[in-house]
Structures are given as C-alpha cells and as structure tokens.
Write a structure and sequence with these properties.
5-stranded antiparallel beta sheet, rod-shaped, disordered C terminus, alpha+beta, single chain, 13 helices, disordered N terminus
C-alpha cells in the first residue's frame, strides 16, 4: 500500500466506494455473460470508473503473441477518435506490459524507456496503469488506464496499489470473457466451415463438368483454410506428371508471366509418393523442395494432402501461405483431406464415365462390325452357292441333251466354287483362331530360306510366272515357322493373281530385324483400296480371291510381334513388307497357348 492508501477517514470511505463500484461492475458484467463482447465493453467502462481514470482501454493479443488483434476503449469522444486515426497495435509501453507479463504503474508514461510518444491529435496522457490479461502463463492482452487526477481524493499521486488490485480483478474477468469469445469464435468458425463443406458437396452433386467441380473444391479450400494460394493437380496416364492443374490465388497476368504450370515435382511429388499429408512452416526447408520458377511468388507455409481413391494416389491438393502469417493446423489438414477425397471421387467417377462411354462405343462398333461381317460372309458364300446350284440344275435338266464337254465344264465350275467356299471357310476359321489366341504359338529362331522354299512348294507359281529369290545372309528371326510359311504362301498367291509374270522374294537385315518382301511387276494396288487393304473382304473388282488373304497375313504377323505393310514397288507393281525381329540367342523357345 502507498501512504495514501493508509490514511484513515475519508480515504477509507473512498475505498469502500471503490469496492462498491467494483461489485456493481461485476454485477453488470454477469448480466451479459452470454455475450463476451458486451462483457469486455462493461469491463473497460468499469475499469475507468473504479480507478478514477480519464481513459481506459483493453487490447487483445493476436495469434503472433505480440501485436493487438482487437482494441476497446472508453473516455474519448468519437470526433477525437476519428482525428487520431489508427488505433494502437501494441507497441511502446503497451507492448512492454504484454512482453513482461506484469503490471506497470507510472506517474508519467513519457519517462518510461519504452515510450514512443503519441500520434498527432492524440490527447495528452501522463499517469498510467497497465495490467496484463492472463490465462495461466499465456498473456491474452492487457487492460490499461491513463490520466488519473494527480491529487485525487485519496491524496495520492496517480494510480495506487488499490487501483492495481481492482484492475487486476477486472483483468481476471476479462480473461474469462476473452476465452469465451475465442471459444465462441472457434465454434462459429467450425459451424461456418461445416456449412461451407455441405454447400460444396451439394454443388458437386449436380456439377457434371469435371474442371468446374475441381475449381469449386480449390475455391472452397482457399476459403475454409484461409490460404492465399491453392492448387489441385491430377496425374496423367503415365503418372509422372499432372495432366490437369486447377488453382486459385494468382491473377491471370501473373499466371501468364510465370508460364508453365506445375507438373508435380518437388514437395508435391513427396506428398503423392508418401501418400500422406505434409505440413510445413517453411516450404523451402523440405529436402524435396526444388524452388520456384522465375517471377513466381515466394511461398512459405505449406499444407499438401494426397488426392487418393481406394488407396491409389491420383494427384494432390496443396495450400500455401495461410493468411495472417500463421501455420496450417490439424483442423486445416482435416478439411483439406475431406476436400481432396471429394476431388478423388469426382476424378474417378469422370474416368469411369469416360471408360463406360468408350466401352459403349466399342461395343456399338463391334456390333456394327459383326453385322457387317455377317453380311459380307453371307454375300461371299451366296455367290458360289448360286453358281453351284445353277450348275447342278443345268446338269439335272440337261442330263440327256448335254455332251461330255458341257457336263465336264459345269462340273468343274461347281468344284471351283466349292473350293472357293472351302478356302473362305478355312480362312475365316483360321482368322478366328488367331485373333482369339486359341491357335498355339511356338516362338523360336527360324531361318527364312527354308521357310520360303516350303512356301513355294505349297504355292507354286502358275505357268508363265517366274519367282526370283534374293536372300540376305542373316535371315534368322524369332517366329513360328508354320505362320511365316503361311504368310509367304498367301503373299505369293496374291502376287500370282494380281501381278505380272515376274515375282521377287527378298530378305534384308539390319540391327533391329529382318524384312521379308514379296514384290510383283503388276499394276499395283489402286489408291482407293490402300487404306483398307488389310481388312477382311477387301479386294479389287477383278479379283478372284476371297478377300481374306491379306487380312490373314496381318493377323499372323501380329500374332508373334511382326508387322506387315504395303507400298508401290519401284517398277510400278506391288510390294508387301513383313517386318520380323532377330532372335535372342540366349532365350529358349517360348511356347504360348
């Protein structure tokens, strides 16, 4: 106690009056205990009343623990407040009360080392009492008064021990109000976040455009987590980079200056590879950080969560630079994870929808192809059947009127048509067997020379046609020799039908494989037929074949990894090239069923 506090008589009565004012203030505060803001306003007014100060104020510390986030005051008229302008932020003596965490009483605040003076138009202040508002060891803010009469009724000089005790008691009430306000704020913010998540989910259930839906998620993440920048990347088919990247926080001009968007490297890649969230105070401190491209804004705080569906990571959602300089919290991570899960469902459903559309289109195409195939087969079989039926009817009706030569001609015509039908049916069965994989395949080193000779034996040239062989020395390939023989015989038959009197079978070798070429000196393939040359039932107008031979060649070659192609020969005829790979001498024959 000061000397003034110990004087009897009127001073004791003044102390009683002060206590009565404190009780009245606490009663008034209790009446508004459900409204923390009103409680704080009552506390500031009560502090001025019970201390006899001209001015009183209450400051609440922000998340940084130093500067003021809120400031309530009493004792100044609105015009004075407007002339002063900006309210205190917690520097000077006010900052000293916060940093030191103890009461500070001064007869003249200008004499304190931390004093920084007053802004223009600020009323003069001398005596000062500042008390920290504490919750345990944590300083939540301060309650301070200024300009107590230098000769008050207690006869003291400025604020007294009694004032300090009374204001400390009010600071305790302020601590309760601030914590209540903080709790209410958290509850209100949590409610707002939950409502926003529900709103986003509602929008996403009706949004059919994937990019728009992902943009909604990115915008919601920025809002709910209070991040400056948010990006969402979706991995492409190769899973080595983003196929799409949605973002917010940068204006279009800045995006254009930066250039290429992220492709999923650095810390973003670490999030996806690890399959878990990463929260960082400084993005640059992570070992996977690769820095920023030119003109890119510097980003500090970071929160990245994987976008995953059923354990498979398909991208990531990342947020940087939480506003206010704060770090991202566990609640922020939970919200980002929830949004990332929604993004994963959207992307997965879109992929499934596209696959379903592609499958429907494929099935429709297959159905159309099946109908066309049945039509072609029916048409191709009908022609020889009509000829055979006509021949047999002619033989039956003209049994007695036909001579031997006529009967022979009709019989031969029927047999030729039967052969055509049998060839077509056999080719169709072989194609079906090859394409379904039911035909056994034995891959082994094969020398093309003996295979070509066997094909010539099974498909000898007609009278007047000469076949020249032009082999290379290294003609060994990895293939099934039965299929290669069939390929060569089909190409020879095709050359006999459509080429001139000269056919060349040539093999050439290089580092990658061997090319087997069958070249004729005919008129070549009409340009209109080239695009569909290896499809079923494609043939020229004068062709006597089934239209399946070249399709069978293509299917046989592809069965063991080869290719077949057509190009005009140098002499104007047709040239068919079958490309086969060299054998691996260290690999044993591979049997595939």
């Amino acid at each position: 106690m000061t000397q003034g506090d110990q004087q009897p008589g009127g001073l004791a009565e003044a102390s009683v009056a002060r206590m009565r004012a404190l009780v009245d203030a606490v009663t008034a505060i209790t009446r508004v205990q459900d409204d923390p803001e009103q409680m704080l306003e009552q506390i500031v007014e009560a502090a001025r009343t019970v201390s006899g100060a001209e001015y009183a104020a209450l400051g609440i510390v922000g998340n940084d623990g130093r500067t003021l986030d809120a400031f309530l005051h009493t004792g100044m008229d609105p015009a004075t407040v407007e002339r002063i302008g900006n309210l205190p932020t917690g520097h000077g003596i006010l900052g000293a009360v916060i940093v030191e965490g103890r009461a500070l009483r001064l007869p003249d605040l200008a004499l304190h080392p931390a004093s920084q003076g007053f802004p223009p138009n600020h009323p003069p202040m001398r005596s000062f009492l500042g008390v920290p508002i504490r919750s345990g060891e944590k300083v939540l803010g301060h309650l301070y008064m200024t300009n107590k009469d230098m000769t008050d009724e207690e006869g003291g000089a400025g604020f007294t021990d009694t004032d300090e005790a009374l204001i400390t008691a009010l600071a305790g009430q302020a601590s309760i109000a601030i914590e209540m306000s903080t709790r209410y704020d958290r509850e209100r913010e949590l409610t707002r976040r939950l409502q926003r998540l529900v709103e986003v989910n509602t929008v996403l259930t009706t949004e059919r455009r994937v990019d728009h839906a992902l943009q909604q998620i990115v915008n919601a993440a920025a809002d709910l987590v209070d991040a400056t920048y948010v990006g969402l990347g979706v991995l492409g088919e190769g899973r080595d980079s983003f196929s799409s990247f949605i973002h917010t926080g940068m204006d279009p001009e800045l995006v254009e200056v930066i250039g290429d968007l992220p492709v999923g490297r650095g810390v973003m890649r670490a999030v996806m590879v690890g399959g878990r969230a990463i929260r960082l105070k400084d993005l640059g401190s992570h070992p996977a950080s690769v820095g920023f491209p030119e003109n890119h804004p510097v980003m500090r705080t970071f929160l990245g969560v994987p976008v995953a569906h059923q354990g498979r990571v398909i991208g990531d959602l990342y947020l940087t630079d939480k506003r206010g300089g704060q770090e991202f919290t566990e609640v922020d991570e939970l919200i980002a994870t929830a949004l990332a899960s929604q993004a994963a469902v959207i992307v997965t459903n879109a992929d499934a929808y596209e696959r379903e559309r592609a499958l429907v289109a494929e099935l429709r195409s297959a159905d159309e192809a099946k109908e066309a195939f049945v039509h072609h087969v029916a048409h191709e079989l009908k022609t020889p059947l009509v000829t055979i039926r006509g021949s047999l009817q002619a033989l039956e009706m003209g049994r007695k009127g036909l001579d031997e030569a006529q009967r022979t001609q009709l019989e031969q015509m029927a047999v030729r048509q039967l052969d055509t039908m049998m060839a077509m049916v056999n080719n169709l069965l072989e194609l079906a067997s090859i394409e379904s994989g039911r035909s056994p395949l034995v891959l082994e080193p094969v020398s093309l020379g003996p295979v070509i000779e066997a094909a010539l034996a099974s498909a000898p040239p007609p009278d007047g046609t000469v076949v020249d062989l032009d082999p290379c020395e290294d003609d060994r390939v990895t293939a099934d020799h039965r299929y290669v023989e069939r390929i060569v015989s089909n190409l020879l038959t095709n050359a006999y039908r459509h080429g001139g009197p000269h056919v060349t079978v040539r093999t050439t070798s290089d580092d990658d494989g061997v090319t087997l070429s069958v070249i004729d000196d005919g008129d070549g393939v009409p340009a209109s037929l080239v695009p569909t040359l290896f499809e079923r039932f494609v043939r020229g107008r004068q062709s006597r074949g089934t239209g399946l031979g070249l399709g069978l060649v293509k299917a046989l070659a592809e069965r063991f990894g080869g290719t077949v192609s057509y190009r005009p020969a140098d002499n104007g005829g047709a040239r068919f090239d079958v490309r086969l790979r060299h054998p691996d001498a260290t690999t044993a024959p591979d049997v595939v069923v």
